[in-house]
Amino acid sequence: xxxxxxxxxxxxxxxxxxxxxxxxxxxxxxxxxxxxxxxxxxxxxxxxxxxxxxxxxxxxxxxxxxxxxxxxxxxxxxxxxxxxxxxxxxxxxxxxxxxxxxxxxxxxxxxxxxxxxxxxxxxxxxxxxxxxxxxxxxxxxxxxxxxxxxxxxxxxxxxxxxxxxxxxxxxxxxxxxxxxxxxxxxxxxxxxxxxxxxxxxx
Amino acid sequence: xxxxxxxxxxxxxxxxxxxxxxxxxxxxxxxxxxxxxxxxxxxxxxxxxxxxxxxxxxxxxxxxxxxxxxxxxxxxxxxxxxxxxxxxxxxxxxxxxxxxxxxxxxxxxxxxxxxxxxxxxxxxxxxxxxxxxxxxxxxxxxxxxxxxxxxxxxxxxxxxxxxxxxxxxxxxxxxxxxxxxxxxxxxxxxxxxxxxxxxxxxxxxxxxxxxxxxxxxxxxxxxxxxxxxxxxxxxxxxxxxxxxxxxxxxxxxxxxxxxxxxxxxxxxxxxxxxxxxxxxxxxxxxxxxxxxxxxxxxxxxxxxxxxxxxxxxxxxxxxxxxxxxxxxxxxxxxxxxxxxxxxxxxxxxxxxxxxxxxxxxxxxxxxxxxxxxxxxxxxxxxxxxxxxxxxxxxxxxxxxxxxxxxxxxxxxxxxxxxxxxxxxxxxxxxxxxxxxxxxxxxxxxxxxxxxxxxxxxxxxxxxxxxxxxxxxxxxxxxxxxxxxxxxxxxxxxxxxxxxxxxxxxxxxxxxxxxxxxxxxxxxxxxxxxxxxxxxxxxxxxxxxxxxxxxxxxxxxxxxxxxxxxxxxxxxxxxxxxxxxxxxxxxxxxxxxxxxxxxxxxxxxxxxxxxxxxxxxxxxxxxxxxxxxxxxx
Lengths: 202, 632
Prior knowledge:
The structure holds two protein chains of two kinds.
Chain A: E1 5-8, H1 22-50, H2 65-76, H3 78-90, H4 93-119, H5 129-161, H6 166-195
Chain B: H1 5-11, H2 17-27, H3 32-38, H4 42-71, H5 81-115, H6 124-146, H7 171-199, H8 212-243, H9 257-291, H10 298-312, H11 327-339, H12 341-357, H13 364-387, H14 389-395, H15 399-429, H16 435-461, H17 478-507, E1 539-540, E2 554-557, E3 565-569, E4 576-581, H18 588-605, H19 608-625
Antiparallel strand pairs in B: 1-2, 3-4
């Protein structure tokens, strides 16, 4: 036997939640990247607005209703999201299953109403730069929404079928964190597309 | 799976030879072609990454040689204007997107886990995915180029030149997708490196003891996370303008051409530091063994890295001084551009002091470091000149600018990189490169470089514009241009010598020196080349210069050897936190990269590519993340 000092780690756990986990840091990295993309698109909107004479240039601003309903749904979805995240941290499989399904239903409702949002933007993406920007903003957010919806669906199936072990609960908890990002990223986008467009030009 | 009592007891002791062999079997990838493609070993991916990037470096070099041939004398007709446009655009895009950034990340992918004393990157499959995406993007653009559809509007492709009106056809769409590929690859590797550095450091390697190269990679990766998304967004907008008639950059419909420049240079300037900072980390790493002392001013060097990263985001507008922006804005960006000389200067003075106080060993890596110091400082000085608006306007778009950025990029990144190749080659391949050929390599590269690029300062001051395919004899630019072309030949010769050196070394039998330079870094404590598991026993770190720290060596015990376990530690003080089982090698990252590539390329031809392309991407990602049966 070599004469080395030893640091024994055999008693340490095999997974951990929150910022102790590398999944948390990986998710945060993705959030930073995609957050920067949202900022670049919002920056584009405000830059173009600062260069324009009338805002929106030709069309009326988007209708308020569907966007506002969706904002309420999205904020409400934080409740099942919080509950499945907490259930995952308790490693309570039953709670995780129930609240994941509820969260999926919320996301599906949101995506369905999103179709009507696109239809009441009152412009087409090729009309002018303003129209291009709000279509892209809404489209980019929808892409995130659909991605996380698919993620959540896959996780939900996994939670019902297995194979399962403790570490999968960490994935569920991190999925919940990513959903918060999709929710919080929506608020400035909502304000920009629906409210600022009502405020006229600079 | 339950462990037998004997195996369990053995866990608490350092590995014997049998246990080290078991560990090695656990971490080895499957044999055969499928195993090769499925590899998630950071060393294997890192090596392929560096070799691929070097291949693109050679391609970019051939394009540069073509340009120097065409410009060697006035009114030559070797390349017609259209081909010349593609050649200089492909040269720039290759060197920036397919060589400089990837090669630095590749060095990080290879070196960081070894330097911080862990067994692999935090997300091994993501590392493989990032590599494949980069490879496929690079192959795509060169296939397009072979079919006369190469990039034609320069590596920054300003609109309206790159817009649908002035760049019809598919050339610029391929450019935009090249950006998507390389940005995606860079971003996933950056996140991977950040998490690896923050969470997988050996116990005891507090932030304050982290090797400077690892610090440089950490700071660089954060810069990538904030810089790459803007250019990816910009290139997506360019594609949309060209493909589905959005109006982002069309002034006639409320769009704005300068918007492109803002989005591009908000990435484009940090890009320079994304290339430069890892190179400074290499310099700091190489100075220690060859001056045989600690770096003077470890803390100022770390602070300078961080300050450079912050300041690097505040000076993109100095690329747009000729675009007619408000005066106040220009003054602000002049000040910011001059400010960045302070952290760069801090690092330079720390290195000079280290050299001054050290006992030097004039090996090839040290020669490259000295060549770097001289060349980079010259590039930095012309940088301060260019930060002044009146001077900038005078030499805008001339060869003075070409000279400046080649001094900064080749001086600041290529010299340290070649030094690093010589320095870490024995670790990777178990053989030393020839010092004799190495000295010739350095001497020719240094002389060839100065001969090529110094005359360009003067050509620029004489008014020679960049990106012209030829010039009339009356301009009087012929003599200096010929000198630059001869220099390019010498530069090419030096790279050839390097290749010969590598080939000769690889033909020799392995000597496997663990630490041929008597260096301080942790990576030199394992065998050369390192085993698949990197370390038979994970080390515990007790000082900044791990192998030079006095006292009894300590190792980690208690990690299972029959499964791929790594130790996760706390961010600041690197105290052990938990064990984590790493995913096995897998073909899914390759399949996901192929599906993503199909999506990106289809999008060049039809917007429906996004819709239909997403289905295989989704399927491969589910395959990737779906856990294996033996978990339950």
